[in-house]
Design brief:
Low-confidence stretches: 1-5, 481-493
Distance between the termini: 16 Å
Helix content: over 70%
Shape: globular
CATH class: Mainly Alpha
Order of helices and strands: HHHHHHHHHHHHHHHHH
Number of strands: 0
CATH superfamily: Cytochrome c oxidase-like, subunit I domain
Mean pLDDT: 92
Number of domains: 1
Bound molecules: protoporphyrin IX containing FE
Number of helices: 17
Length: 493
């Protein structure tokens, strides 16, 4: 086998590190909020429903936000090696994100807004005295500011892709997919970034439109909004935006695993076809969240059902299969980064399965409002997406490529893997037992599941504390000025 000589770029630019520090600090805080919610449901503490829903609103918005910030950091770090991106726009996005977070915190902590991160119409404007119109507007304004930052970021990425490739179709590898494969398809990072940019630009415009309408409605109730249209726009935006986080983070797998195995990750025809197919399908899959809405046109529900099935397969399959083939008999040197990245592929695959099941209309009627759904998305986000981020953090922070990981990190990895599985399986098992989701108070027969979940959740936080501390301690060395080293194995570099 020909040696794969790509150099290892240890470290990252200060801006990428600032993104990661923001993400990891917020992640820990939001995890603590998650533990508090689980402890409340387990009747181990007594916060009361008001605090539960405030924490749930912050946890949902915060987690989705940091997943996007961390995913964007990974995408930007690698994409900047292929196309000319603007560091100023990248920093502006972080600035707008922090401003939006401040607005959301003020709305929830100061103004007691607790309508959920999904801000479903007409809840924000009909609080029945629980929060003021100002608090609702501040929350939605915060989301709008965060969305504006991401819109700018994706516009800049689109500009850079167009400048380098001359068209988004070319950046998706269409000439090689539909014409003769000359072997010059864009690298996986470019293909993935193009897909994310297309779907997020559409999703963000939809999200901004409904947020703007709802902010007017808060102060001017006569400005009526069609509730079904509002729900569709919100779920379209929310689902696309959350999905995109894993499509950004998986770039770490495409870029880093090959450097360990000395085998390139090729953008071959199945790879290009699956990314093109998902570019379309990700935008049409969201109706599986509306299968219980009788007012929805039937054809949209059928579409959600069918595309829900189809979209589970392409990218996940090519990535999981590609990952296995890359590692198989490669003599890979396992360390924290490569282990976490490999684990993340399992987490993504495992987390997609409950969604696949829930996307079946007959099952959805019974399962969708139960803990089954948090079970699905916590598996694919925590054991998939966020685990990719941890892998990236260990990778750029590692002082010496051949260095041995500390025993504490290795123990933390095992604790993380087992506790995350325990935590997410508790959600799924509760869902199977029909435990309702988004309830602050649980029936006595639900409480044992909650207690088991709370113990696992504390262990998850403990493990993540180790990952985060290690990353923060290595920050000075992780600055981009650190010398670039080549992977010592295989290529003999
Ligand atoms: C220690 C880790 C975590 C704990 C203990 C935790 C706990 C929880 C709990 C108790 C809920 C409410 C479930 C319900 O009754 O419906 C929840 C909801 C949620 N979590 Fe987590 N979580 C954790 C990590 C994460 C991560 C890493 C993400 C995403 C990156 C995430 C995203 C969400 C979202 C989007 C919701 C939905 C909020 C809503 O229904 O409005 N969580 N989490």
């Amino acid at each position: 086998m020909a040696a794969y000589t790509k150099t290892v770029d240890r470290g990252a630019s200060p801006a990428v590190l600032a993104y990661l520090v923001t993400a990891v600090a917020t992640l820990l805080l939001m995890m603590v909020f998650g533990v508090l919610m689980r402890m409340e449901q387990a009747e181990l503490i007594a916060l009361g429903p008001m605090w539960f829903y405030q924490l749930m609103t912050l946890h949902g918005a915060g987690m989705v936000g940091i997943a996007a910030i961390a995913g964007a950091a990974i995408m930007w770090h690698f994409l900047a090696q292929y196309v000319a991106l603007s560091p100023r726009i990248f920093l502006a996005n972080l600035g707008l994100f922090l401003a939006g977070v401040a607005m959301i915190l003020a709305s929830v902590i100061g103004g007691h807004f607790h309508g959920g991160w999904t801000f479903l119409h007409p809840l924000p404007s009909r609080s029945m005295g629980m929060w003021s119109p100002g608090a609702a507007a501040l929350f939605m304004g915060g989301l709008l500011v965060i969305g504006t930052g991401f819109l700018l970021l994706h516009l800049d990425i689109a500009r850079a892709l167009l400048a380098r490739y001359g068209g988004l179709g070319r950046a998706l590898g269409w000439p090689q997919l539909f014409g003769r494969d000359d072997g010059n398809a864009p690298p996986p990072t470019v293909v993935a970034s193009t897909m994310v940019t297309i779907v997020n630009l559409v999703g963000l415009v939809a999200g901004a439109s409904i947020l703007a309408m709802m902010m007017v409605n808060v102060y001017l109730p006569s400005f009526a909004i069609d509730a079904l249209l509002a729900k569709n726009l919100i779920y379209f935006f929310g689902h696309v935006f959350v999905n995109a986080t894993i499509y950004m983070a998986v770039i770490a797998v495409y870029e880093i695993l090959p450097r360990y195995t000395q085998r390139p990750w090729k953008a071959n025809r199945p790879f290009l076809a699956s990314w093109t197919a998902s570019t379309l399908m990700v935008m049409f899959i969201y109706p599986h969240h509306l299968l219980m809405d009788f007012a929805m046109p039937k054809w949209m529900l059928v579409m959600g059902h069918v595309i829900g099935y189809l979209n589970t397969v392409p990218i996940l399959l090519v990535t999981a299969y590609g990952g296995l083939m890359l590692v198989y008999r490669s003599g890979i040197r396992w360390d924290m980064a490569s282990r976490l990245l490999f684990l993340s592929l399992f987490g993504w695959a495992a987390g997609a399965m409950p969604a696949f099941i829930d996307g079946t209309i007959g099952v959805n009627y019974v399962m969708h409002n139960t803990m089954w759904v948090p079970g699905h998305f916590h598996t694919y986000l925590l054991l998939g997406m966020i685990t990719m981020v941890f892998g990236f953090m260990y990778y750029i922070g590692k002082p010496a490529r051949d260095g041995i990981d500390a025993a504490l990190d290795r123990v933390a990895l095992w604790v993380f893997a087992i506790a995350t599985l325990g935590f997410t399986l508790s959600f799924l098992y509760s869902g199977k037992a029909s435990v309702a989701r988004r309830y602050a108070a649980h029936l006595p027969e639900w409480v044992p599941y909650d207690r088991v979940a709370a113990v696992f959740a504390v262990l998850v936080v403990a493990a993540v504390l180790v990952f985060a501390t290690r990353f923060l301690l290595r920050l000075p060395a992780a600055s981009m000025d650190a010398p670039r080293t080549a992977l010592a194995r295989g290529a003999g570099a």
